[in-house]
Amino acid sequence: MIHGRRAVRGGAGGGGALARGGVLALAGVLGALGAGCEERAGVSPAARKGFGEACADGAECASSVCAAIGGVCSKGCRVDRECGAGHVCRSRDDGPDGVCSKPQGRAPGEACMTAVECQHGRCLHRAGALDQPGHCSAYCEGAGDCPAGLKTCEEIADSAGRKMCLPGEGGAGTAAPGAKGKASER
């Protein structure tokens, strides 16, 4: 610490050189420590995998995100179009946004009992009817984010302010009778 002050002030004699040498030596030690950590993690930054490549852990990915469903290096998302072809935006348990994943499970519109069964991790049921089959759904920002048959993009009672694809063929306000505010996620 004292040597660092001398180097900043440009101390007299060899003290400044010693301080600069000490700083360089410290930088070398920190660099070696950092390299050791990367080696212990098993993946150097240059060898990390890109989006869509197979992974078992986020440490393998350049984004530090490995999708639990599908096991691919991923990124955060809100709707499918942010993920690109061959991937869906699957909801996460720990927040309102999702993570790009391989589509595994039932597509939006297909019958479901639990969210795990659905590609997007969303199974919608009519309020008070959790013991009856619901349908798989996905988050949307507009009707264009939804598949045929589910072209109504509206908030439901427990979607945390996010819109969901609901039965219907038009834009907002054209949901099947009783659909708006009567569904719940499970």
Mean pLDDT: 73
Helix content: 10-25%
Give the count of helical stretches.
2
Low-pLDDT windows of residues? 1-41, 172-186
Q: Quick one: how many beta strands? A: 10
Task: Characterize the biggest β-sheet.
Answer: 4 strands, antiparallel
Termini gap? 57 Å
**Secondary structure category:** alpha+beta
Strand content: 15-25%
SSE string: HHEEEEEEEEEE
Rg on CA atoms, Å: 26 Å
* Strand line-up across the major sheet: 4-6-5-10
Shape designation: elongated
Task: Report on the architecture of this protein.
There is one protein chain. With 186 residues, the protein is of the alpha+beta class. Helices cover 19% and strands 17% of the residues. The protein is built from two helices and ten strands, in the order ααββββββββββ. The strands form three sheets. A four-stranded antiparallel β-sheet has the order 4-6-5-10, with no helix packed on it. Strands 1-3-2 form a three-stranded antiparallel β-sheet, with no helix packed on it. Helix 1 packs across helix 2. It is elongated and about 50 Å long. The N and C termini lie far apart (57 Å). The N terminus and C terminus are likely disordered.
Features of the shown structure:
alpha+beta, 186 residues, disordered C terminus, three-stranded antiparallel β-sheet, disordered N terminus, single chain, four-stranded antiparallel β-sheet
Q: Which SSEs are present, and which pair or pack?
A:
Layout: H1 2-9, H2 15-41, E1 76-77, E2 88-91, E3 98-101, E4 111-112, E5 123-126, E6 134-136, E7 139-140, E8 152-155, E9 163-166, E10 183-185
Antiparallel strand pairs: 1-3, 2-3, 4-6, 5-6, 5-10, 7-9, 8-9
Helix pairs in contact: 1-2
